[in-house]
Write a structure and sequence with these properties.
The complex is a heterodimer. In chain A, 73% of the residues lie in helices and 0% in strands. Chain A is built from 15 helices and no strands. In chain A, helix 6 packs across helix 12, helix 6 packs antiparallel against helix 13 and helix 7 packs antiparallel against helix 12. The two termini of chain A are 33 Å apart. Chain B has three domains: 126 residues, no CATH class; 115 residues, no CATH class; 162 residues, no CATH class. A five-stranded antiparallel β-sheet of chain B has the order 1-2-4-5-3, sandwiched between helices. In chain B, strands 6-7-9-10-8 form a five-stranded antiparallel β-sheet, with helices on both faces. The radius of gyration of chain B is 29 Å and the shape is elongated. Classes of the chains: A mainly alpha, B alpha+beta. Chains A and B meet through helix 1, helix 6, helix 7 and helix 12 of A and helix 11 and helix 16 of B.
Chain lengths: 362, 503
């Protein structure tokens, strides 16, 4: 069975989820919300907690996969359609973070602008990851945990002495901007959907919900701490500081005899981000494999990565336009899939029970 | 000519399943028909009552003194026995068995055990007077320790089995002897402790060895290729050791060992990558010292792989990783070098590999000259001539030395290092990170005999971390590694787990 451990899900939320939110997100959030960026991010996290709670509630009542639940309630065809739609969504949701990382790579890891081809080997890694299944996804979280924990703590310790946390006050000055920031950030908060596809693939333990929610809270706290330090350092010019992860610690390290040793931690976090970027593509292939088991997974992995590679190459010079599209126009798509779909899945458990009862009566 | 003789020696006819009768000449004729080799000799003699007897043996691999004193002499001093069992009883030699047909007898003779025939007695009596030309049990050169046992395995499988038995005196220790190699008929032994080793692993190892259909097995490394779950992998998947103390510790943890006749290297399964970062000495020094040593080994391996790659990437892509003062020093050193950084590093690594390869194969008395040529001519003169830069030589030397802190991984590290250089030279720092992610994905997805290669890190097994990079006190290592799936998990009986056992 293609299994993932509960601990690995927890590590995902505590370590991989925050890693993907440390590039351009802080700067864009600062643009919409100014010093209230913590409130906007907090709203997003609160909404995610609700969805995550719903999925965990569902997992406590069934040991079947989401596909089996859909199949039981609406039939195989419907389950296949939903899974194919979800696969398309995962593929779509993977695009923007990839473009974001491409910008990060070209701006931070190279001093002279490299060819777009430098980024393309990423898809070979992603292709390989897609062939490995959920088990590897979980083990990647195991590897990511120490990498993230050490690097993140080191970067924060290097950066925090330069932060003026007074810049975050007064709270609530932005008003409606907080909600706008939260709404425009929705596309970065699709992680809560993932556990729905882990249903039936992990074994429940004591206090499962508590552990996952605690891990999620730890991940959310890491993002909030980062946002606070980031805004505390850059204040009004925070909007201009894209790729924030590469900037927050440089004032400490640049003037030491050791040089920019923070790059070592940035590299480690980049590896975690690579793992993180592969997750939606892996889930896309997982959905397609489940929906269409007769087709060889190699084909799905090649198709998914080929599509993303084409999109990245085509959208090479249009990052700002894509960013605007995702933040300001497509938030509704993310609301439907990442938030409403898990909530809509809740009655499936009840439907299954009713069906059992009917079968029993019959 | 010698090879031709050997070939002849092994040329046992397939159609020789001919049962022996009681007539001596007919039996000898049957054996000589199967073994036409010139080094298979027949010594005919008479028992005390004048009955004709004969010993068939292979020259050079039979202990002729033991054959004469313990087998032939007792027979010449008494009446000829009536049957094969009585023959066995009258010999002064404990290791005897019966061979009912010519093929079995021929196999034993070729293994060095002579076949004894007595006129009027059915079958042949095989005497285990094999001449073992084994070297002494000495400390293996590949795993030298300052503290701890210094014994090492030798090429004789029976000596090796004895070295294991000497350390594990439980009746649960099992040795299963199989055979591999159509021509070589090499004895291969599976060793494990029943009740501790996982049965599925034992069955799998047994099945894989039985399925080997190769003509010759000169060394255990041949066997290891057939035991690998991913035969084309760059990474090692079977543990190896030359030291009985390490092997016994691994068997006691629940692993299965495989010994091969003619090889001083024992194999262990299942294998995890972290095993190579451990040394037998870690268990004989303080746990703090052992932990520091293990972390140093990990750091050295990472340095060996990443340092040349990041050096190349830093030069080509102007990475601001280096402090300004160091950057100035390096930039002064690399001025005027005709090769590109990637090519320079690649060239120096190839030179390093050539030096290592030559120093292993070269006679020892030439080694001094080699080191002079390697260090002075290739190093110093190349820098003076402006062909390569001093920082590059320092980095390659550091990388080369670091790789040998974990000797079992040195081969893999050297290949991976070259791949990293190529990637760093073409794709830069992001290429290095992508290759790292790819290797990690590959490693975390590699399982052998149900055990992940990267355990206990991925998947994380908290209990097993106590003897991974961190070495806990022996009192805390009360359980066997959970990942090996042993039914008997208790290694150390403490008061606490004794109370648990009693309810």
């Amino acid at each position: 069975m293609d299994n993932i451990k509960l601990r690995q899900i927890c590590f995902y939320f505590a370590c991989m989820m925050p890693a993907a939110k440390l590039l351009i997100y802080p700067a864009t959030l600062a643009y919409d919300t100014k010093n209230d960026l913590l409130l906007a991010a907090g709203l997003n996290f609160a909404a995610q907690v609700l969805v995550l709670g719903a999925v965990l509630w569902l997992s406590a009542r069934t040991d079947r996969t989401f596909f089996a639940l859909l199949e039981g309630a609406f039939g195989r065809l419907c389950a296949r359609i939903v899974y194919c739609l979800c696969a398309a969504f995962f593929l779509f949701s993977a695009l923007f973070p990839m473009l974001e990382q491409r910008v990060f790579v070209t701006q931070v890891l190279y001093e002279n602008v490299p060819s777009v081809l430098v980024y393309t080997p990423f898809f070979a890694v992603s292709f390989f990851a897609c062939l490995q299944g959920l088990r590897t996804l979980g083990r990647a979280a195991d590897v990511a945990m120490p990498l993230f924990a050490v690097s993140f703590v080191a970067l924060i310790l290097l950066a925090a002495p330069h932060a003026d946390f007074g810049a975050l006050l007064p709270v609530g000055r932005t008003g409606a901007g907080i909600f706008r920031g939260a709404l425009f950030g929705v596309h970065r908060f699709a992680d809560c959907l993932y556990p729905l596809f882990f249903l039936g693939h992990f074994r429940r333990e004591k206090k499962t919900a508590g552990k996952v929610l605690a891990a999620f809270a730890a991940g959310a706290l890491a993002v909030l701490v980062f946002l606070a330090v980031f805004y505390g350092i850059f204040e009004d010019i925070a909007v201009l500081r894209q790729n924030s992860i590469a900037h927050i610690s440089k004032y400490t390290t640049s003037f030491t005899s050791l040089g920019r040793i923070d790059f070592l931690f940035i590299f480690a976090l980049t590896v975690v981000q690579i793992f993180c970027l592969c997750v939606p593509v892996q889930l896309c292939v997982h959905c397609l494999r489940t929906a269409l088991p007769r087709v060889h997974p190699l084909f799905f992995a090649a198709a998914a990565n080929g599509a993303l590679l084409t999109a990245v190459l085509l959208l090479n010079d249009t990052f700002l336009e894509v960013q605007q599209l995702f933040t300001q126009k497509l938030w509704a798509v993310f609301l439907v899939f990442a938030y409403l779909l898990p909530l809509a899945a809740l009655p499936l458990c009840a439907a299954k029970k009713n069906k059992k009862r009917e079968d029993g009566d019959g | 000519m010698f090879a031709a003789k050997l070939h002849k020696l092994g040329d046992v006819k397939e159609t020789s399943k001919q049962r022996f009768g009681s007539e001596l000449q007919a039996n000898l004729h049957a054996v000589k028909e199967v073994l036409a080799a010139e080094d298979v000799l027949v010594h005919e003699f008479f028992a005390g009552d004048g009955t004709r007897c004969a010993a068939v043996y292979a020259d050079g691999i039979t202990d002729k003194a033991a054959l004469g004193e313990l087998v032939i002499l007792p027979l010449t001093r008494r009446h000829a026995p009536a049957d094969a069992r009585q023959v066995c009883a009258c010999l002064c030699f404990p290791e005897t068995r019966l061979a009912p047909d010519a093929e079995t007898a021929a196999g034993e003779v070729l293994a060095g055990n002579p076949a004894l025939f007595v006129d009027g007695v059915d079958g042949a009596v095989i005497c285990g007077t094999k001449l073992v030309a084994a070297r002494a049990v000495t400390e293996p050169q590949t795993s030298v320790t300052v503290k701890g046992p210094r014994e090492g395995f030798v090429e004789d499988i029976k000596t090796n089995m004895g070295l294991i038995r000497k350390r594990i005196k439980t009746p649960s220790l099992r040795f299963e002897v199989l055979e591999a190699g159509r021509q070589s008929h090499t004895a291969v032994c599976i060793a494990y402790i029943e009740g501790i080793a996982d049965k599925t692993v034992i069955q799998s190892v047994r099945g894989r060895i039985a399925a080997i259909d190769i003509d010759n097995v000169p060394d255990s490394s041949y066997i290891s290729k057939f035991l690998m779950p991913r035969p084309h992998s760059l990474f090692k998947q079977v543990g190896t050791t030359e030291k009985p103390d390490i092997l016994c510790a691994k068997i006691a943890e629940g692993r299965v060992a495989v010994l091969s006749d003619g090889s001083p290297i024992a194999l262990t399964l299942p294998y995890m990558l972290e095993e190579d970062f451990q040394s037998s000495q870690d268990y004989f020094v303080s746990p703090y010292r052992a932990t520091v040593s293990r972390l140093l080994r990990l750091f050295a391996v990472l340095l060996s792989v990443f340092l040349p790659a990041f050096y190349v990437a830093a030069q080509l892509f102007k990475l601001r990783l280096l402090p300004f003062a160091l950057l100035l020093t390096i930039s002064g050193g690399i001025q005027g070098i005709p090769l590109s950084p990637g090519l320079e590093m690649f060239f120096l690594l190839i030179v390093l590999e050539i030096l290592i390869e030559a120093s292993v194969r070269m006679p020892k008395y030439v080694a001094l000259a080699l080191s002079v040529i390697g260090a002075l001519v290739l190093g110093d003169t190349a820098v003076k001539a402006g062909l390569v830069s001093s920082p590059a030589i320092i980095i390659v030397a550091l990388s080369g030395i670091s790789a040998y802190t974990v000797p079992d991984l040195a081969g893999t590290v050297s290949v991976v290092r070259i791949v990293y250089i190529l990637v760093a030279g073409s794709l830069g720092p992001y290429g290095i990170l992508l290759l790292t992610a790819l290797l990690l994905y590959y490693l975390i997805g590699s399982d052998g005999y149900g055990v992940p290669l990267l355990a206990p890190f991925a998947p994380l097994i908290r209990r097993d971390l106590r003897d991974a990079l961190y070495k806990a006190n022996i009192r805390d290592l009360d359980k066997r590694p959970a990942v090996l799936g042993s039914r008997n998990q208790t290694r150390l009986r403490t008061r606490k787990n004794k109370e648990n056992a009693h309810g």
